[in-house]
Amino acid sequence: MDEVAIEVSSPGGGSPDALALVLAEDDTTPGSDGDLQQQLQQLAEDGELRGELGRTVVLHTNGASTARRVVVAGVGKRAEVDADAVRTAAAAVARRLRDVGGTLAWTLDDSLPLPLDEQARAVVEGTLLGAYSPGRWKTEQKGGKQIERIVLYGAGDGVDETAGRAATVSKWVNWARDLANSPPNELTPEDLAQRAAQLAGPNLEVSALDPQQIDELGMGALSAVGRASANGPRMIVLRYEPANARSDVVLGLVGKAITFDAGGISLKPALKMYDMKGDMAGGAAVIAGTAAAAELQLPVRILTVVAAAENLVSGDSFRPGDILRAANGKTIEITNTDAEGRLVLADALWYARREGATNVLDFATLTGAMEVALGDLYAGLFANDDAWRNDILAAAQASGDHTWPFPLHRRYRRYVDSTYADMKNSSELRQAGAVLAAEFLKEFSGEGPWGHIDMAGPGFLERSRGDYYTQRGGTGYGVRLIVELARRLSA
Ligand code: BES
Ligand code: MN
Ligand code: ZN
Hints:
Elements: E1 5-9, E2 18-23, H1 37-46, E3 56-60, E4 69-74, H2 83-96, E5 102-107, H3 116-130, E6 147-153, H4 159-181, H5 189-197, E7 204-209, H6 211-216, H7 220-226, E8 234-240, E9 250-261, H8 281-295, E10 301-311, E11 323-325, E12 331-333, H9 341-354, E13 359-364, H10 368-374, E14 379-383, H11 386-399, E15 403-405, E16 423-424, H12 433-442, E17 450-454, E18 460-461, E19 473-474, H13 479-489
Parallel strand pairs: 1-6, 2-4, 2-5, 5-6, 9-10, 9-13, 12-16, 13-17, 14-15
Antiparallel strand pairs: 3-4, 7-8, 8-10, 11-12, 14-17, 18-19
């Protein structure tokens, strides 16, 4: 994986292939570039140069600047400029420069209402996430020259470090997107375990339980979900143990990795079933987030558990009416085989606690109901502990992985009561689908702080979001949040 080079320099340094200048909607011309000022002014008067968010105008400088091209990037209304706006502007620039590549210089603007280091971080993320292409499986790759270097003009405190970290994190976000976009014939549970195994290093240990070991540990829920597929389930485990860990916290990251969700006997409709290759996005996020934390050498211990399975239909499928026994001993009546995510997570949560996780957070594309509630931008957060919920929300807010709190309440529990078993895996009422899934998971979350992020909406896009996610498919949602959370836990 190539990593973009990051440099901080004073304006005018070097001869970049392109120089980006930001322009707010309420400004007439961008913070100028000497000899080009007149031309910019003319374009502004003509109405061609405007600062709408996501708009770009390219000028070829013919020697009037050290840069061969100047790209004016609209950031919207000055007072409304936030990290998302800068990411969106940077993504637009990156896409505009697809046929140019090379070195992009970006002028940080200290008159924007966003600190310089936050601007730098957003520029790097927007550029790298915006330049991502999901077309890896095309036999002919058109255009697409890589941006190899980002030079940030306008140093400030911490700009260097923040921008470098953003480059590393963005690389892992795109790695997670590649996994989510991988077709299910190329990414079975075993393939995912192998991809994880390749990440092993001096302080990152990776292993996987095979179907037999899963059965031996009594993981009847994961085992049943994975049973119909010729590609059997895996429980993938990563242990990041830095020598300099600062506290006795063990961050437990748990991910849902259904490599393809056909729904099982409770079969999904054919329309858009193909998008269910992305039902492993939570698992990809926790693996990538762990790898990023390890690369950044964050001083916090992490235990990552990914429940990987393929939910198919066969003569050996689990059925509606079956009663399963999860690893924690609880019995589950299956009322819908398409509510499989909570089943595999039940065993993964138990395993994470058994292996010593103190603060648990799971990521899952769990319910269509969550996507109905929040769309493609926010994920929903459920937690059993106020302090832990606040930690997660604060990290989410700082990271750009948008997350909003949703309730748990014991009065909801009766909707997953079963006549025959300890609980059932889905309700026939069409109410609070995302909450009931979370109430179900709570039964397996063990002792201690636990949070659950339902990322069904932002995890895998059906279309461009119109911001810095300009493509359909995997977003790598969760990777940035995880790194931010791990950083805060180690501070
Ligand atoms: N993977 C799906 C949820 C999903 C739907 C994710 C759309 C992303 C986009 C999950 O396994 C599922 O099928 N959930 C069911 C649960 C129901 C049967 C209780 C759902 O949401 O319909
Ligand atoms: Mn399902
Ligand atoms: Zn699913």
